[in-house]
Amino acid sequence: MLKVAVHGALGRMGRRLVALVAGAGDLELAAAVEAPGTPGIGSPVKGVIPQAPDGVILSEHYTGGADVVIDFSFHTASAALAREVAETRTPLVIGTTGFAAEELRAIDAASQKIALLIAPNMSVGANVLFDIAAETASLLGADFDVEIIEAHHRFKKDAPSGTALEVARRIRDARGLGEEAFIFGRHGHTGERPPDQIAIHAVRAGDIVGDHTVLFSCLGERLELTHRAHTRDAFALGALRAARFLAGRPPGKYTYKDVLKAT
Q1: Which residues are catalytic?
Q2: Helices (runs of H) and strands (runs of E) counted in the chain
Q3: Who contacts 243 (Cβ-Cβ below 8 Å, separation ≥6)?
Q4: What is the CATH number of domain 124-228?
Q5: Would the pLDDT of 135 be above 90?
Q6: Domain spans of the chain?
């Protein structure tokens, strides 16, 4: 039985993770963690999430006892968690996005002590999209313009999404371009579109779970690659797949591609 701790347990993603862990035959909820001061700290998680098992108390810090920790919280909290988890030598899966450079450095430092996997999107389909988009960009060549459109719910705090940025980076590398190729939306008299531009557009509306479309277009035709997450279970189930992969691995920084290759 794989013991799982969920960090950010009362968030939209955390609640689904707690429920799915509780319903899986090979997983056990070992801990549920939330930010200090969160209502319910010190009380049974079951009082907030009915699917949670008896006996698990909502806590402010992870202190050990799990085979793997899954984090869906906030970028500042994730960086602090990485330091805590490194001290307990517990593998860590991070599905949070929006990190600053110094926060990524803290996460990299933790990977020297523990097995750590960080991905901008935890759904299996989106991770396949990364590779397909890069290969498509390489095959189509510079005649095809690239536009990336992402849409999420009104509550998402960062833009563009980490997934859209990762798609853009993969296409940039496949085309041999630099960071200057990126443009985020357009406004005013922009002139004609330069050939080496990778444009990223962010939509925030309602309860959209997560849509990403990569549009390749030249004079005469276009090709579109689209991934849509129907529910948050796409991310939660992908994170659990990553957790099963990561548990017991030696220290190091892993990617979701490692998960796809192994399972």
Answers
A1: 152, 156
A2: 7, 12
A3: 2, 4, 68, 70, 91, 93
A4: 3.30.360.10
A5: yes
A6: 2-122+232-262, 124-228
